[in-house]
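Sample 1 of the test manifest.
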Amino acid sequence: MNAGDLRAARARIPEVPRTARRALAMAAILAGGMLPLFVASGGGFIDDATLALAYVVMALGLNIIVGFAGLLDLGFVAFFAIGAYTMGYFGSLFHIDVNGGNGIHILVSENAAQLPGIHLNFLIIVVLAIVATTCAGMLIGLPTLRLRGDYIAIVTLAFGEIVGRIAINGDEIAFLGTKLTNGRQGITPVDKIDLPLLDPFTSLNLRPWYWVAFAMVLIALFVNFRLRDSRLGRAWIALREDEVAAISMGVPAVKTKLLAYGTGAAFGGVSGAFLGSYLNTVNADQFEFSFSIFILAMVILGGLGSIWGVVVGAISLSFIINRLIPDVLNPLPNKIGLDFDLTELSFGIFGFLLVIMMVLRPEGLIPEKRRKMELSEGLEDLTGDDDNPVHKAVVP
Amino acid sequence: MSDSGPILDASGVTKQFGGLTAVNDVSFSIPRKAIVSLIGPNGAGKTTFFNILTGLYKPTLGQVTFDGRDITAGRPDRIMALGVARTFQNIRLFGTMSALENVMVGQHARMKAGLLGSILRPPRVGREERRVREKAAESLEYVGLHPALHDQLATNLAYGDQRRVEIARALASDPKLLLLDEPTAGMNPQESDDLTSFMERLRDDLGLSILLIEHDMKVVMGVSEYVTVLDHGEKIAEGDATSVRTDPLVVEAYLGKAEAERQRQEDGVG
């Protein structure tokens, strides 16, 4: 068979579903982008939707580390914390005495320009957050390079805890003359996002916040798709599948893994900086271990390594935690004469959902194509006969 | 770098795991464009020796040079980039990748796209992707994998096809030296014969040197210019196929002392 037949054979099989999938994706993106126009600009729904999008960005970042490269990371909250503190350091009253109480201001609008403390433009802060989290990601990557599987999880878990503890106790740690963090009191208020050509954001109109989060999701999606189908993405999957074979085929393990950690962490940092500004506080209580599990559950629920699956997983979990349980289900116990707060049970409900999910659909809501093929075609293979002419190939 | 010397030269290579000496003071070289076999009973240290050559193990003592460069204890991915490709005894394909993608990974060291290049995909990277994809398809056709199977997941391929993909993955990196670890394991005699002529084609058409670990003596004797025999980690014989086959130490290593005695007596009588 020549190359032309080959291309034709390859094109024939996936073409139809691919156009359908493209159309579906475009429709989802359009609907997502238009959504704020149809809901109240300050209500609870758009608030939850914005949070969900910020979580999607984190989940897509974690998907690179866990889904693509197969490095189980239980300390992703650390990157959320580092991104949020970058926002807190460079966009709030935190360094109130800096520059003799006059503050430092770079490309910020009039409101912030009057205030003491350091105030940088949000885009600069995002770049700083990317740099900080990428470095932190590689730092946590280094000690795990000699480890495999569960042991990586333990080290990353410890890293998340260390960052969390430092955040809590940072108000007692002096660093360059200021406190390291504000501990549980939190750094608040935090500057609102301030983009060129746009009015400064307010907490009354949430639409611009939503669109910023939405743009971050689009970028994260783009990066995920591009990386998946690249030299680097193949190297990650190869390392995940068989590390010995991968390094024997010329994949440098150290560099490739560190790139996975660094890239994934950067998304945690960007989303963290956004959330610091959006929630108007950078508070040590946000950086609990349970948050790492929350993000990891989004990835697993959606389907490890499946980009759209992770998006769906993140949105649904975030809505379950932020809306379904506190707003919809919470009054139910009262109606049947029980007196307790259902939100206290959030993580119980959430664990229950995961168990059900693992029983009914262990590969995730939208499984990664390769995993799905592996599961279904593997079964066909057991029943397939060996006389299949295709298997009787020619040489050698 | 010399073009005339051996492509690979190992001298005094020793590997100890704790108290166990898996490979003991083995010296050995592979001439250019030659097929050399490494044989020996199970547990003789053949695969350990392979792993030392490819950088997976660091030798306790000794030196390995490839193409005039010292590669002793070099990183496996760097040794691969220099031109040493291998297959594994128990096939190690990337199960959830297609046959084609497996072979594309084999070209990793020959590609340049980095993190930013992969994300932004400038024309240079796009061209590289296409080139690598086409070359992977060519490699698969060269080893005889049916084109309809190129997009199948490796794990779903038949055993013989998995062997083909593994060889294609190694070949795609344009190696100078190919290490094959028991390639005929699980093959029927017809397939083994095909593989023998295939190896000769690799040597003659592509100018490859091949180091072969093999149990099938018919293949070994048919194809190799030189044979080295390991037993208990030590080199007990080397030479061309016929002289090695009749070497009493080799017969003893394979068949045991008593059987070797018996054969010697029979030979004496006959």
